[in-house]
Each structure stands twice: as structure tokens, then as C-alpha cells.
Structure prediction request, 340 residues.
Amino acid sequence: MDKVLVTGGAGFIGSHFVKRILRAADISQVTVLDALTYAGHIENLGEAFLSPKLSFVHGNILDTALVDALVEEHTAVVHFAAESHVDRSFFAAGAFVSTNVLGTQTLVDAAMRHGVDKFVHVSTDEVYGPLPLGSASEASPLRPTVPYAASKAASDLVAMSYFHTYGVPVCITRSANNYGPYQHPEKIIPLFATRLLRGEKVTLHGQGQHVRNWLHVDDNCAAIELVLREGAPGEIYNIGGGTDFTSKELTERLLGLLGADWDSVLYVPDRLSNDIRYSMTWAKLATLGYRPERDFDESLAETVDWYRRNTDRWAPLMRNPHAARPGVSLAPAAEEARVH
Ligand code: NAD
Prediction:
């Protein structure tokens, strides 16, 4: 697997992954295929373009001819490209089904024709749905409740069907919530950090009781590389091992790091659907040698500092017309409170 095609490599996690595998001596070529939607930014790859191993193709994973030609030139595919924001899926579910399900099928179909060594499909813990108690293993049922998670669950099933039917060496990773630099400010950590940096209020859904497991993007990328190299075809690997917080506990930490207090928080009615808790076991990945390394408090402080020092990376996104949709507002919190 010396020639790796990375879809969605200009997004948050994909760009970290590309920088990581460019450092691997046994990987000779890394090609990013990315449509540069509102969520993709060529700047996320930044210094990676100094590497002669990197090529960038501006294109859509739904473009069968393009995908076919690119997959043919590579020995492995790592598939990140997706519509990834739950709130947007409440208002534009069609795009989620089209990119996440049909896009995955287009890629895995090309992988079948050209016989790649490994196809890593990047998925999420949200496919297991809410777990008020206990933790999901890879064998647990899929019970997605929101259109985003349903489209990811469907894409997992499609990808794995190509392993069972045609022997395509598919591995699926399902990770917890990621955080770190370069994340789009529509997601909760950068959204709250950038609002507090601007001296604005943040909004907590319900009573801030929803639990998420927070994993640093570097730990997730290390795990995905491990699965690319060592994962057994036909296997699913949960990537957990982050830190559990309710959104209220997370907010408390962000307020502390940004020198704000609870007066900066507005409580708003819960969103249309909001899973109470996600939780996964990750023993299978541990047998391959996975151990998350990042300390949450230290890494959250580093992340906030990145947003503090890189205003030019996120301020222009505040004006992005794609963000001006109910439920995905980057506007001041008082306006957001009105649309719920
Ligand atoms: P992101 O939204 O930051 O990036 C998605 C990238 O895909 C963007 O660069 C975008 O331009 C590209 N893209 C979208 N549609 C495309 C298309 N049709 N053709 C080509 N490129 C297209 O997402 P992310 O947070 O980096 O997530 C990456 C993957 O990881 C997704 O599959 C997501 O479901 C999964 N995941 C994310 C998290 C998380 O916390 N962010 C957690 C678990 C799993």
C-alpha cells in the first residue's frame, strides 16, 4: 500500500491524516481527492504541499469516471469524504445520502474493479445510536437516530457488502468525536472557542446533559493508519479511548480556558434529535497495539490556543453563505437562540 488515495483530505481529520502518512518512508504517493465543499479547505494541507509525494485533485467522489481513474493508480484508499455535520443533516438530508452512501458505493465499486490492497472506510460511533448505559462493541446493532448517522450506517453496510460479495479488503473505523486544530467552526469546540474569543455568548442545548467521548484527532489518525497497515479485511474497529464529558462539562472547561463565566452561556431548547450518550469499547483495536496518547486538558488548551493564534483561518468562514441555515448558524448566539 505505497500509493494511497485519500478522499476528503482537505477536511479536518483527512488533512491531519495526510500530513501524518506523508512522513511514512514506505508510502511513495498520497493523492487527495476533495470537492472543496464549504467544509474543505486547501489551506488545511498547508505545508504538506512541500512534499513531492502529495498530489491534489479537485473533484467529487460521485464522479464515477474520475474515481475509477484515480483508484486504478493507487494501491489503497482511505475514505474520509462525507457530509459530516449532524445539524446540517436535519435540513439537507439528501446531500448526506448522496455523498455518504452513493459516494462510498462509487469508491468501493472502483476498488472492486482495480483490486486495491486495502480500503479503509472512516465512520463514526454515532451509527450505534444512543446508549444511556453500557458501551457498543463492533458487533452491536446499528441504531442511528439522525440523518447524518443513518447515512453513515448505510455507507458502512454498503462498504462491507463489497467485502462479503466481491472480497474487496474493506476495513471500517468508527471513531468517537474528534477535536484539534483546523476543525470547521460549526462543530461545538471550535464554535464555542471562536464565539468566546469574539466576546459572544455560546448556546447549550437542553440542560447540556448529552455525553460525548472526545478523542484528539492525532490519536484517531494514528488508529486509522494502524488499521490501514494491520487491519484485517472485513473487520470493523471502534476507535475510542478519549475522555467522556457532558456538553456542560465541556463548556465549563472552555469557559475556563477563555477566561469567561456562565453569563456567557445561553440555554436553548434541545435540537430536533440529540442522542443522550455515545460509548464504545475498543478492545479489538487495542490488540493491534492502539493506545491513545493525548491528555484531554492539555490538548484542549493547545486547540483553543490554535484558534486564538489563527483568526485568519476561521474568521472568513463566519461570512460563508452555506452556514446561514437554521440550526447551523455561526452567527451570534442570541440569533441562534431565536431559530430553535
Ligand atoms: P469535514 O467535514 O471536516 O471534511 C469532509 C471533507 O470531505 C471536506 O474536505 C469536503 O470538502 C469533502 N467532501 C465532502 N463531500 C465530498 C464529495 N462529494 N466529494 C469529494 N469530497 C467531498 O469532516 P471530518 O470531521 O474531517 O470527518 C471526516 C470523516 O470522519 C467523515 O467521514 C466523518 O463522518 C468521520 N468522522 C468524523 C468525526 C468527527 O468528530 N469530526 C467523528 C467520527 C467520524
